[in-house]
User: Which sequence fits this backbone?
């Protein structure tokens, strides 16, 4: 394929994602507000230091330390930090970023995913990733990224479960907490999103869960059924 043949027809850069509420069936993503969300997030996360193992920060030792961390997020340029609200009780139980936003290229990433144990391996956790993707692609973005430390096996498995495709390894990509980080890269493209979105929607449907809350069909199987 020549450069000319690879030209995009009528490509226009996507807008920077405005911070807004993203509403789902099980969760709601709200623009991070320290005053409104800190107490709930601290209550859900306090004492669970393992959730910080792969994040580029150490576990906050107090609510005031967590406040300072969240304040640094809401003032940081170039990201959209969101609180993850569990609609079952209306409480914020984690947070994440829309980040590495490059409107001129149509690229966005979900990252800095900070899920308390109350969110991990739940429908809320999965729906949050779906909501971020659906929002970005609705704005005209072309590429949804997931990156993680190559040693972080749970994160790599999650990326594949969510439909991200492994692209390769950036060796010695970062130094995090004084340690080398080789970074694994994953992505979903705009051409792939409609089928993956249908798989997310089918997985999240109430009828996909039995009376004990166990899934009937896996997200991976539903994605395969979409072709």
Assistant:
């Amino acid at each position: 394929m020549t450069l000319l043949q690879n030209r995009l027809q009528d490509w226009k850069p996507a807008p920077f994602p405005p911070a807004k509420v993203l509403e789902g069936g099980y969760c709601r993503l709200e623009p991070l507000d320290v005053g409104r969300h800190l107490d709930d997030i601290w209550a859900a996360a306090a004492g669970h230091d393992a959730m910080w193992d792969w994040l580029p920060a150490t576990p906050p030792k107090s609510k005031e330390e967590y406040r300072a961390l969240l304040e640094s997020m809401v003032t940081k340029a170039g990201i959209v930090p969101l609180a993850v609200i569990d609609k079952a009780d209306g409480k914020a139980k984690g947070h994440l970023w829309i980040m590495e936003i490059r409107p001129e290229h149509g690229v966005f990433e979900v990252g800095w995913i900070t899920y308390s144990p109350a969110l991990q391996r739940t429908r809320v956790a999965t729906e949050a990733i779906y909501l971020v993707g659906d929002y970005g692609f609705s704005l005209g973005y072309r590429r949804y990224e997931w990156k993680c430390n190559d040693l972080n096996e749970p994160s790599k498995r999650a990326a594949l479960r969510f439909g991200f495709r492994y692209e390769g390894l950036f060796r010695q990509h970062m130094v995090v907490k004084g340690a080398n980080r080789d970074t694994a890269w994953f992505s979903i493209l705009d051409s792939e999103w409609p089928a993956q979105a249908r798989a997310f929607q089918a997985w999240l449907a109430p009828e996909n869960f039995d009376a004990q809350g166990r899934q009937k069909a896996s997200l991976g199987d539903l994605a395969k059924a979409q072709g």
Observations:
- The chain has six helices and eight strands.
- The helical segments are 34-45, 63-74, 123-138, 153-161, 193-204, 219-225.
